[in-house]
Amino acid sequence: SLAGAVARWREEGRLAVWLRIPILQSRFVEAAASQGFAFHHAEQGSSTLTLWLGEGPSRLPGYATHQLGVAGAVLDESTGKVLVVQDRNRTLNAWKFPGGLSNPDEDIGDTAVREVFEETGIKSEFKSILSIRQQHNHPGAFGKSDMYIICRLEPSSFHISFCQHECLRCEWMDLDELARTNHATPITSHVAKLLLYGYREGFDKIDITMREFPAVYTGLFYKLYHRELPESYRNIT
After folding, report:
1. Could you give the domains of the chain?
2. pLDDT tens for residues 111-146?
3. For this UniProt entry, which segments traverse the membrane (predicted)?
């Protein structure tokens, strides 16, 4: 049946076929492979195979090549202290900002707020993006590329109740101390200095903020992250 369908699709001038096979019907993968299908990606309950029918090499897009990690630098401006953790089960117990991987359909700021709460029990609000790290061949991403974003958050609670499974230690540390200590991860040290600069000289000098706009697709919206524009420029028509 599949062989006949592939022949018909070629005659109709189709360029490509996407074939989704539920996990409980995975026996059909062998039949698809015999017709030239190859794996594209797999999820919990299914695998997706593709067959390029056009001329030349396949022009189908690859599956996701990056994972997205987000951390939250929660700064209490009234005390100058920032929330830091040490991961459990790490060879080097260095101070870092709490964070983790973003879920599908989850905004960057929401990931930071959620991860901070899950790891430390601290509630917070997203204020801005401070930095973006790009790294390739990441061992923790199955050899794929990794994007790691650190956000500035404002706390709305202050009592720490950290996750014993993920964290070895958690505390409010003086930001100036974090910027100077040798017991922090390299990226934490760099961002701590950036945060200290913003804390002393004004966050407008370091913040990448977010605005939401309607997308070209009806009913959808997108979030645009950028340095703030003066109002006179924002209102240009």
Report:
1. 2-52 (3.40.630.30), 66-204 (3.90.79.10)
2. 999 999 999 999 999 999 999 999 999 887 878 899
3. none
Could you list the beta-strand ranges (E) of 113-191: 124-135, 145-155, 167-174
Q: Which residues in the chain land under pLDDT 70?
A: 91
Give the predicted TM-score (pTM) of the model. 0.84
- By the 8 A CB rule, do 188 and 94 touch? yes
The residues facing 85 across adjacent strands are 96, 170
CA distance 104 to 30: 30
Hey, CA dihedral for 64, 99, 163, 95, is it positive or negative? positive
Identify which of 67, 69, 99, 70 has the alpha carbon closest to the alpha carbon of residue 83. Answer: 99
Tokens 């101070």: give the residue: 95
